[in-house]
Specification:
Number of domains: 2
CATH superfamily of the largest domain: Resolvase, N-terminal catalytic domain
Order of helices and strands: EHEHEHHEHHHH
CATH topology of the largest domain: Rossmann fold
CATH class of the largest domain: Alpha Beta
Strand content: 5-15%
Distance between the termini: 80 Å
Largest sheet: 4 strands, parallel
Helix content: 40-55%
Oligomer: single chain
């Protein structure tokens, strides 16, 4: 029997230390701990896929909590069945002792574990949806206050008009213009549009 652990955080700036500490306490070998820094909306995660390819019948997989495995109700249930029934491993969810397939393998134990799994999977997806809702509300509120998101717009250089005129008169190629402006071609054309609108309004 090989012992594995799986750790997931939703983004690169989140800390996985709490999960790692819990897995080490469960005596999971460091080399058998797989970490993804990705959303739990589905199981299309590179290191999770590597983990599944390594699993064999009789192995044991530890996760700290069910929402670290995933946050999609139907996919968690389907993945749990694949791992425990098709692959034939045991799973232990450290913060929920009822979700330990090594124990309670009789009919009643299986029923209770399935029920707990469904409830926790539902909660995991509900929490994900609530997080997304709060994020959307926060972004909307910030935009209403004038907060801008994404990269700040690159300002054109002081001689932008001269460069544009030279380009329009075919005295400079586009590659040279964007190089002197220190911006991408797409950004140049956006700034060009604004520049022409301003120029046309002045000439109107």
């Amino acid at each position: 029997m090989n012992i594995y652990g799986y750790v997931r955080v939703s983004s690169t700036d989140q800390n996985e230390n709490r999960q790692m500490i819990a897995l080490r306490k469960a005596a999971v070998p460091e080399k058998n701990i797989f970490l993804d820094k990705q959303s739990g909306k589905d199981f299309d995660r590179p290191n999770y896929k590597k983990l599944v390819r390594k699993l064999s019948a009789g192995d044991l997989l530890y996760v700290l909590s069910i929402d670290r495995l995933g946050r999609n109700y139907e996919e968690i249930l389907a993945q749990w069945r694949v791992l425990t029934k098709e692959v034939g491993i045991d799973i232990c969810v450290l913060d929920m002792p009822l979700l330990d397939t090594r124990s309670g393998k009789d009919l009643l134990g299986t029923f209770i574990a399935d029920l707990v799994l469904q409830i926790l999977s539902f909660v995991a997806q509900s929490e994900r949806e609530n997080i997304r809702k709060r994020q959307a509300e926060g972004i909307a509120a910030a935009k209403a206050k004038g907060v801008k998101f994404g990269r700040p717009e690159k300002e054109p250089p002081a001689d932008f008009g001269i460069l544009v005129n030279a380009w329009e008169q075919k005295k400079l190629p586009i590659a040279e213009v964007v190089k002197r402006c220190n911006m991408s071609e797409a950004t140049f054309y956006r700034r060009l549009r604004d520049y022409r609108l301003l120029r046309d309004s002045k000439n109107a």
